[in-house]
Each structure stands twice: as C-alpha cells, then as structure tokens.
Input
Amino acid sequence: MEENKFSSHNLGHLGIIAGIFKKIKFKERIDKLIPVSHEKGAKLTMGERIMGMIYNALGFIDNRLYMFSEFLEEKPVQRL
Output
C-alpha cells in the first residue's frame, strides 16, 4: 500500500488574503489596467508588485521593506 505524503506550511493570515485575491482576480485586474513589458526587463507584473506591498503592510510593518525577503523565507510564496 502506498503511503501518502503530505506537507503543511504556515500561511497565517496571509493565506486568507491570498484566497480573497484569487477569488476576486485581483492580480489579473491590476495587470489589465497597468501592463508591464517583460521585453524591457520587468520580472514581476504590477499585480504581483501590489500584492507584495499589501502582504508587507499586513504582516511585516515593524521592519524595513528591504528585509521583506527574510519574512517570506518561511512562507510558501508560490501559494501566495
């Protein structure tokens, strides 16, 4: 019999916010309003950038923005 392997990650309150963003298609709406050119070197869309700023404001307000990557080290970013 095969053993199922599961893993879990702590999203905290950011999981709720990510679920709402996905349900209302937040990123897609922002990207439609403010497109970016990947040919000019853009790595993230405007929707992704704005979502990152919102996540930062809701969970990492006591530290500097350049340290946000440390906050995300333990978060499953692909889920957010």
About this structure: The CA atoms of residues 21 and 66 lie 24 Å apart. Helices lie at 14-23, 26-33, 46-59, 68-72. The two ends are 33 Å apart (CA to CA). The mean pLDDT is 78.
